[in-house]
Amino acid sequence: MKTFLGKRAISSAISLVGLIVLVFFLSRLTGDPANLYLPVDASLESRERFREINGLNDPLILQFFRYVGDLVQFDFGMSVRRSEPALDAVLRAFVWTLELAAITMTLVAVLAIVVGSLAAFRVGGVFDRIATFFSLIGASAPDFWIAIVAIVIFSVGLGWVPTSGTGTVWHWILPIAVLFIRPFGLIVQVVRGSMITALSSAYVKTARAKGVKNRPIIFVHALRNAMLPVVTVIGDQAAALLNGAVVVETIFGFPGVGKLMIDSILQRDFAVVMAAIFVTAVAIFVMNILIDILYAVLDPRIRY
């Protein structure tokens, strides 16, 4: 197991290095920040001075090696737009995204596992038909459309919740609800399919023959053996949220890392872009390793 985790950590580190190289050079293709931050009629001397202050007047390859040297010391540079360390701005935004993702995925995982398991227990029944119908709709609905419709109905029309911001608990309801729908639909379908296979296995039939009640059969005997594909999908959906729910954060004015990343790209704030990519990638790599450990807990055969 230690060898397996060590190999995963090394592969993750290699992927992180490749990602940093790719993003560094691609971000520079968005244009010269001097054209964005200085007036149109700014003199050439002012532009050169701006580039010199922000380390943009050197050849691109020299800028890259200087950035790598600073990165080794965990120095991500200063934000041009915010005049503060880029890492501080990213970590402040990432906390919001992490809280949003944690709350959403906790609700999604618990409810989807329960609904999918109950739907699989009686395939073709009323509950199974209802769960399948709504989960397919949820899995197919685009986030931006749901968010706009939710604002029109519940914020503008009924006035129940605010349209944007993070001041109170009520501000969190719509972002969480919108982010909840699609992962819930996907995971319900995966749980249902995996549980149907598990419930038709020999050990479940033996448990039924021994008179074991339905609840232990569903949530003890079958569920653990059906959880491996479910954990994979939950991990994928959680990674998508950690990467920044860009659409939802933008629509609801949520100060998460996804919105920060998009704003920084438009503002050509390269230091913040690089810091956001680094922090997000590390979080996703750590989560993938935790999922691998969870695999081994659920199925001891994976340890070998």
Structure described in brief:
By secondary structure, the chain is an all-alpha fold. Helix content is 76%, strand content 0%.
Key phrases:
single chain; 304 residues; mainly alpha; MetI-like fold; 2 domains
Description of the structure:
With 304 residues, the chain is an all-alpha fold. It has two domains: 2-72, no CATH class; 86-303, MetI-like fold, CATH 1.10.3720. It has 13 helices and no strands. Helix 5 crosses helix 8 and helix 12 (257-266) packs antiparallel against helix 13. The longest helix is centred in the middle third of the chain and has 36 residues, at 86-121. The termini are close together. The relative contact order is 0.14. The mean pLDDT is 80.
Q: What's the CATH H-level homologous superfamily of the largest domain?
A: MetI-like
**What name is given to the CATH topology of the largest domain?**
MetI-like fold
CATH class of the largest domain: Mainly Alpha
Q: Determine Rg (CA atoms, Å).
A: 24 Å
Report the end-to-end length measured between terminal Cα atoms.
7 Å
Taking all residues together, what is the mean pLDDT? Answer: 80
The portion of residues assigned to helices is over 70%
Structural class: mainly alpha
Which architecture of the largest domain would the CATH scheme give at its second level?
Orthogonal Bundle
Write down the domain tally: 2
H/E topology pattern: HHHHHHHHHHHHH
Total strands: 0
